[in-house]
């Protein structure tokens, strides 16, 4: 079946516009062309930023109830068109149709949570009379929006990760300019469509499609941008941090998440959750399971069960509801994963399952005895590969979990509350999931990591705090009254 090629417009300050250049959007499953989107120019990005700044300055009295109404209407529009959103996510990206439907549900919830949190952007009173001589002073602080937010989003969650930028920005009264991943721009444009239909004032949202080299640098460095919210790789994150200058920076930069399985754990639950965590979204998931450390008495039965369950996964057509694992985002990434696995095998690792590539597809792969010198043991594979390693005890598992330049999330399986709390205290991550894999998140929770995993926190409420600043108000009252 041939897919009809659509020419899509980008949203520039509330207006749908074309451009002189185009970017091809292809289906990674078969490399077929599915759409063309504008390849924006530097001048178009500059215009989007200027219009965002103008809109923000004109609408400083934008009421809370109006923002709530827009967010609610946008969520309703998404719900009414949920299958259209899901098919777009699956078609342009790596997710199966089942996974895509799950992402749509989460994105709707993210926008709904943003509407709820808009009514809770509160301050508090301050006891100025705690200082001698300030007995007649009274005051408080409140939070105000910072202005124009820049958002740069990745391909792996092309709808919900964009929602995590736009939702909090609108909830807190900011304007936002989004540059989505060039390989998956269609989902972001669909989200913009929801906000246009909801009646968002022009200028408050632009979704500018184009190359990072052409428009990304302009977005990051522009003086009217007050915050850069970036989700992506460590190398790009470091570059943005150096470019941004004196503005807020919020970054989620991935990980190679560890899971610890102790001898007292429920082995069936640990296997099931870890297989799902390792291979959902083809392993292209910042909190996906990459390294599993299993207490030695549990190691052999865990490994056997894990291989058995992973071998049941169906690799195939993304649009088939029976499929568990689709292709990576392109063949280049599949080749990179293949190279990393081959390097580990050359250094002495053992292949227990998978290890084969066909085009952009790479089979769910299990490695054991991976030397610590291998790239795959230290870096983020961002593919369907998991390393399973025996350890003597919890202390060794935590030490090996921490021995990388990442710290986003981790999981531990144990029925010993003391060991769980020991892990909570000593593991170096932004989130620890007890009796589940690292691959668990709700959209309301603070989300982010330490070390090379990023700066700041996402999650709607946390993002709103980053996109606002406190202003202190102090009254010096006349003591004569």
UniProtKB/TrEMBL annotation:
Residues 18-473 form the Aldehyde dehydrogenase domain. Keywords: Oxidoreductase. Pfam families: Aldedh. GO terms for molecular function: lactaldehyde dehydrogenase (NAD+) activity. It comes from the Bacteria. It catalyses: (2S)-3-sulfolactaldehyde + NAD(+) + H2O = (2S)-3-sulfolactate + NADH + 2 H(+). InterPro entries: Ald_DH/histidinol_DH (IPR016161), Ald_DH_C (IPR016163), Ald_DH_N (IPR016162), Aldehyde_DH_dom (IPR015590), ALDH-related_metabolic_enz (IPR051020). Transmembrane segments: none annotated. It is an enzyme of class 1 (oxidoreductase). The keyword Oxidoreductase applies. Coiled coil: none annotated. Belongs to the aldehyde dehydrogenase family. Part of the sulfo-TAL (or sulfo-SFT) pathway, a D-sulfoquinovose degradation pathway that produces sulfolactate (SL). Catalyzes the oxidation of 3-sulfolactaldehyde (SLA) to sulfolactate (SL). This is 3-sulfolactaldehyde dehydrogenase. It comes from Anaerobacillus arseniciselenatis.
């Amino acid at each position: 079946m041939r897919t009809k090629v659509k020419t899509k417009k980008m949203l520039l300050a509330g207006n749908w516009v074309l451009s002189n250049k185009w970017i091809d959007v292809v289906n990674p499953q078969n490399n077929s062309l599915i759409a063309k989107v504008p390849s924006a120019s530097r001048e178009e990005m500059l215009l989007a930023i200027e219009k965002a700044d103008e809109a923000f300055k004109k609408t400083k009295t934008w009421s809370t109830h109006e923002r709530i109404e827009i967010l609610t209407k946008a969520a309703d529009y998404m719900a009414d068109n949920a299958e259209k959103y899901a098919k777009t996510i699956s078609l342009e990206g790596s997710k199966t149709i089942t996974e895509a439907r799950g992402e749509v549900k989460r994105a709707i919830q993210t926008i709904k949570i943003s509407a709820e949190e808009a009514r809770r952007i509160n301050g508090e009173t301050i006891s100025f009379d705690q200082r001698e001589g300030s007995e007649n002073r009274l005051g408080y602080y409140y939070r105000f929006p910072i202005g124009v937010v820049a958002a740069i989003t990745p391909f792996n969650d092309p709808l919900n990760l964009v929602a995590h930028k736009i939702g909090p920005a609108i909830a807190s009264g900011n304007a936002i300019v989004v540059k989505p991943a060039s390989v998956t721009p269609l989902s972001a444009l669909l989200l913009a469509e929801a906000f246009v239909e909801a009646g968002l004032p022009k200028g408050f949202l632009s979704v500018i499609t184009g190359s990072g080299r052409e428009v990304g640098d302009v977005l990051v460095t522009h003086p009217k941008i007050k915050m850069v919210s970036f989700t992506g790789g460590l190398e790009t994150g470091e570059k943005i941090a150096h470019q941004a200058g004196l503005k807020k920076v919020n970054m989620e930069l991935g990980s190679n998440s560890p899971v610890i399985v102790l001898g007292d754990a429920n082995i069936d639950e640990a296997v099931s959750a870890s297989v799902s965590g390792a291979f959902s979204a083809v392993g292209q998931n910042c909190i996906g399971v990459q390294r599993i450390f299993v207490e030695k008495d549990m190691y052999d039965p865990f490994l056997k069960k894990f291989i058995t369950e992973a071998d049941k996964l169906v690799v195939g057509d993304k649009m088939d509801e029976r499929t568990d694992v689709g292709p990576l985002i392109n063949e280049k990434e599949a080749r990179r994963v293949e190279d990393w696995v081959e390097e580990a095998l050359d250094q002495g690792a053992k292949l227990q399952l998978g290890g084969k590539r066909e085009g952009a597809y790479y089979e769910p792969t299990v490695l054991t005895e991976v030397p610590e010198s291998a790239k795959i043991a230290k870096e983020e594979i961002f593919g369907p590969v998991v390393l399973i390693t025996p350890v003597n005890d919890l202390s060794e598992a935590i030490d090996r979990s921490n021995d990388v330049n990442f710290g986003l999330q981790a999981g531990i399986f144990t029925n010993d509350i003391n060991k769980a709390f020991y892990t909570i205290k000593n593991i170096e991550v932004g989130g620890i999931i007890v009796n589940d894999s690292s691959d668990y998140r709700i959209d309301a929770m603070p989300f982010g990591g330490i070390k090379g995993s990023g700066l700041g926190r996402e999650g709607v409420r946390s993002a709103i705090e980053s996109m606002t600043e406190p202003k202190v108000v102090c009254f010096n009252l006349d003591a004569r009254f």
